[in-house]
Design a protein that fits this description.
single chain; alpha+beta; seven-stranded mixed sheet; seven-stranded antiparallel sheet; 23 strands; 15% helix
Length: 330
Amino acid sequence: MRAVSDPLAALSERERGLLRPAALPDWIEPMAATLTDERFDDPNWVFERKLDGVRCLAFKGPDGVRLLSRNRLSQNRRFPELAATLGREPAEELVVDGEVVALEGSRTSFSRLARRARDPVAVYLYVFDLLHLDGFDTRRLPLRTRKALLRRAVVFGGPLRFTPHRNRDGRALSRDACRRGWEGLIAKRADSAYVGKRSRDWLKLKCGNEQELVIGGYTAPQGKREELGALLLGYFERGRLCYAGKVGTGFDRETLHDLAKRLAPLHRADSPFADEAAPARGTTWVQPRLVAQVGFSEWTRDGRLRHPRFLGLREDKDPRDVVRERARSR
């Protein structure tokens, strides 16, 4: 896909009035979606595939390309091929929002992406929004306009992909997504501006349960298991770490070794959990600084994870920002 020489020329007079002249920003707070159980059809919304990867904001300017995670950590060394591809874009200044993913067949896989440090895993940046272009802040433009402008402004190909969307049939698309083994959908209000916070203008429609949780300790290995047995997990609520259960599946030998190495300097004498529900016998407590991505079937009535499985560590999430996700209506 070739970029248009002047992608802004196609904007209407009204749309041009929403642009704001602006210097290339050092940072933009990413917009976040709200979890919902609703499935709906609405012509005022667009529907995208929910990608199971690492959120990435890419900034291109005179000094080169910066890839930043949602907690502002540089991703250039981790994904140099993405930085190189964006560096060849025709736009002089560009800020895009997207998700770095690894693929297993046609599905995106966070656990495969987490193995990137030790395996030559191919990665792709799926871009879904345009926040700045050649001296103009585009965030006040309606979402559909931003997406059209994105397609005109960026040359997609190789590891750089445009995130497709549907303008209708949200219920049918949600059913199809779950049949395909996708993580779910993101529904977005079509006329919404881009705001740097969690909003009900973006909604998460999940096929299964998955979220980030903080590691507060681990149990001793049993049988042939090496390094550690299970991770004790929690989330923050009103500044207190609440116990959510433990996960003992989803590890291979290399993952266990890496976890043990990362957890060793975090040992502490007492439990970091505010309640006394976490099992103390045979547990090694740690400072709550590492965040795990965990899949599970459901929350029990007493607030524990049912059938959890470890998917990988998240380095793009501040532990203090980890809360229990609860579904809300539109």
